[in-house]
Amino acid sequence: MPWNLSSDRPIYMQLMEHIEKDILAGHYPPGERLPSVRELASDASVNPNTMQKALQELERNGLLISNRTSGRTITEDQELLAQARKELAKQSLNIFIKEMNALGYSNEDILAYIKDEF
Amino acid sequence: MPWNLSSDRPIYMQLMEHIEKDILAGHYPPGERLPSVRELASDASVNPNTMQKALQELERNGLLISNRTSGRTITEDQELLAQARKELAKQSLNIFIKEMNALGYSNEDILAYIKDEF
Amino acid sequence: MPWNLSSDRPIYMQLMEHIEKDILAGHYPPGERLPSVRELASDASVNPNTMQKALQELERNGLLISNRTSGRTITEDQELLAQARKELAKQSLNIFIKEMNALGYSNEDILAYIKDEF
Amino acid sequence: MPWNLSSDRPIYMQLMEHIEKDILAGHYPPGERLPSVRELASDASVNPNTMQKALQELERNGLLISNRTSGRTITEDQELLAQARKELAKQSLNIFIKEMNALGYSNEDILAYIKDEF
DNA sequence: GTGGTCTAGACCACT
DNA sequence: GTGGTCTAGACCACG
Predict the structure, then answer these.
(1) CA of B48, closest CA in chain A: separation in Å?
(2) Mean pLDDT of chain C
(3) Rounded (10°) CA dihedral A107, A113, A114, A115
């Protein structure tokens, strides 16, 4: 999957979001080891320091756990993962609703539309 | 509203999408005159030729009408506008669903989630 | 009617053809006086000398008659007109056939096609 | 074959028509590769961008197919080719009829004339 | 090498 | 002033 980095926002933030999505989508399963900083950085064609910063931020919210010597692993805290998923879902929904509203769809319209599509 | 052009996709396409959204959101009402090519181009910090190409593409699908000497106007064909709106809504929904699926939400989950939020 | 002069062939020839068509199409009736050289030249945005040359050529094949003092008149020789018409018709047909042949139509195809269209 | 571009109509349109005729006349067989944009442009003594525009227009109606890195090929859709041929034939016929009518030939006259010539 | 995109700058017709 | 066209020259991604 391409990284698609744009220059109009801090790179490390985009890296964070990208990796967070990968984790929550199950691409990196809970408890698993994450690839090394160097590997990820080269993958994203980004300076290792930038990648490092992104991973540190992800540690701060608990999604990643640093094991000093053996790299980083994904948290096994299912509740935390669920919460983070919920957060992302909320963001997605908000963007979606905003776009639909701009197109003239009321909230009821949106609901009806989705029921129709499914 | 900023234009937020990224360099990873053809600029004229991004211009098209941006203007299409503006039209469908009612920012430029049907039958109204669009700002001149040069004005829009300067607004988007883009070469007039690039903006011209974007507008000509929008003309091709009927959303805009060029009046040689007196500028371009937005179509008054309500049906066409409705259809274009539907198309954009469908795209938004697809992206939304794809993201939700990646987060582990089934279609039923999505429906339940939205009902909950509204 | 516009004159549509292109620069890839002698101007006077194009003027000749244009005026000949006008005469044979009855736009200038037989026996009638032709507009003055100056007038025609200004109409075609062309140097009067060039127009003059065109008219002289048309005199040589008999379509026009110069009356020294009172300008030029169109010939009343119906046979000559008929013959010229025939000549032009032949040219038109030849061009048409050539184009159709290039498109893969045989002479029989052409005949069938025209019958069909009429 | 010379390109014979006149300045009284957009060049790219004349290029389109010229190339379309070449294709429909079988000068570039179906499925075959077209010369490169640059080659055609230099051939027609025209800017590559202008030639590009002409080719893109022909692509839009399906006559050409662009293969990003390996040049353009002529469509193999025989039906499309046949339809385009029909369209051109119709145009040729209309022009021919109009000219003949101007010369005083009725539609019956035209038919009789052609039968005579074949 | 290929097609595709973009910019800069120019000229045109129309009104 | 408007849209439209054209040129010249540059850069990109893809193989």
Answers:
(1) 23
(2) 89
(3) 110
